[in-house]
Write a structure and sequence with these properties.
- This protein is mainly α and 244 residues long.
- 65% of the residues lie in helices and 2% in strands.
- It is built from eleven helices and two strands; from the N terminus they run αααααααββαααα.
- Strands 1-2 form a two-stranded antiparallel sheet.
- Helix 3 (85-95) runs parallel beside helix 9 and helix 5 (130-139) packs across helix 7 (165-175).
- The chain starts with a helix and ends in a 7-residue tail after the last helix.
Length: 244
């Protein structure tokens, strides 16, 4: 009787351990799946509705308010047709020449970035497309590591699956950072040129596009030689850029 009871207790204990082991394995997988479902739901929502803020905006606002509790971001949403084609072409020429052709990820650019990172033994550049940059801006942090890069790729494919290229570019140009606390084309045009996104000329558009990789630095250092040289290069490439 005692032996039988002992075996039953041992069996029950083994089942309990297996159940815990199952949840230890399945729990994180379930959590990852739920996060992906949340991202996909938000991407679907933004096909019809404009995002009121992004992860990048919230992070920057939090940083600004550490010094000034009343700080606010500069950002005004404008529809695609009210953004100068000059800026659209300049951004594509500078950031993602194959934007209209790839499916969200430019694998050749990623391979080159991987080689550069391996040479430097750290993540210094990601070879990101406009779609990937939008994925990062909407949901992710500015940290550079391969785990975040992997999530960026997943979200980029989500964006390309449910959104048109035009919608992706429209959202990107309205939420991308152009300076300290300055987000979107309209705010950038007002901040730098006292103009509107619709009225940007080729030189102005090219200059804004060149600032994108390091906008806070160029907001504070607007007359660097590199900025001037690179602006000329992008301005010459703009006519070859295909718009969605």
């Amino acid at each position: 009787m005692a032996a039988s009871s002992g075996r039953a207790a041992a069996s029950s204990g083994a089942k309990g351990r297996r159940r815990w082991l199952k949840w230890i394995i399945l729990g994180p997988l379930l959590a990852v799946l739920l996060v992906q479902l949340y991202f996909f739901a938000m991407v679907c929502w933004w096909t019809q509705f404009n995002p009121s803020s992004t992860s990048m905006m919230r992070s920057q606002l939090s940083t600004l308010r550490e010094r000034n509790p009343n700080a606010k971001l500069e950002q005004v949403w404008v529809p695609y047709e009210r953004i100068s084609n000059n800026l659209k072409r300049a951004v594509i020429a500078s950031e993602d020449a194959n934007f209209t052709e790839h499916d969200g990820v430019d694998w050749e650019a990623l391979e080159k970035a991987w080689e550069r990172n391996n040479k430097r033994h750290k993540v210094i550049g990601g070879g990101s497309t406009i779609t990937q940059q939008l994925a990062k801006n909407l949901f992710l942090s500015g940290s550079r590591n391969y785990l975040r890069k992997g999530q960026e790729l997943v979200i980029a494919y989500m964006l390309e699956t449910v959104m048109s290229k035009q919608r992706i570019l429209e959202i990107y140009l309205n939420v991308v950072e152009f300076g300290r606390g300055v987000f979107g084309a309209e705010a950038a045009a007002r901040h730098y040129y006292r103009s509107s996104a619709a009225r940007l000329d080729p030189a102005q558009a090219a200059r804004l596009a060149v600032m994108l990789p390091n906008p806070r630095y160029y907001d504070a250092h607007r007359q660097t030689n590199y900025l001037s040289r690179r602006t000329g290069v992008i301005q010459r490439r703009m006519n070859a850029a295909d718009l969605p």
